# Entry
Amino acid sequence: MKIGKYKLSLFVSSYFSLDGGAMFGIIPKPLWSKTNPADEQNRVKLATRHLILQSGNRNIIIDTGMGNKWDDKSKNIYNIDLTHALELNNIAAASFTDVLLTHLHFDHTGGSTKIENGKLIPTFPNAKYYVQKKNYDWALNPSDRDKGSYLKNNFEPLMNEGVLHFINGEEQFDDEISFIIVNGHTFYQQLIKISDGENTFLCVCDLLPFASHIPLPYIMGYDLQPLITLNEKKKILQHAVDEDWKLFFYHDPEIAYATLMQTDKGIRLKEKFYSL
# Structure
């Protein structure tokens, strides 16, 4: 698929698991388990699925996944499966020019750094990394509620190496790429919008982790401001229906992206796609 000057491709770098109740908030298990069955520890499966944008002189990756800096205890808690790698997509890490980070939670920027000769260094040695300045500020001083999600070894080395660059609000990155700010899940998460006027891809990130989060009450227990999330969902979903956007799901273990339609029960999935 191509949007403007960019060729789009995707790959899944890992799978992991989180508590199903936390992933669906107030929704009872008999409802969410129909689409997202839980394991014996009540965990549901998540992917870290990356969109890659390639043009003549740029290779861009959106978010960097879980990374491989986990100890055995954490691997067991999160049921981490790191069987995939960038090389499966035939692009070496050194070939990337830009890394667009939606926010700095460990499952979105864990792969931004790696350990080499006992030192934390950027995984993508020739890339500039981009994140919202206000999300970075929050990541340095998170609340007691969400400090476990902001692990500084994933992003402080980027600052120390001079490769972390800040976006301030809903700037235009280039002709095809722009940002939409949402604050319900965490502060200043940036959704990545790729559009050429005819086709639009929106990386909905943790606003809609799974395709099954489309119904309005389906909001994560992790969200810092769930009522803000609710209003953000209403706005984004209506735009997606009205303008025929394709929504790209970072965490859905099966559905890569989908289109939406209006029904008598509200906005629901229209077409589901499992690959580009």
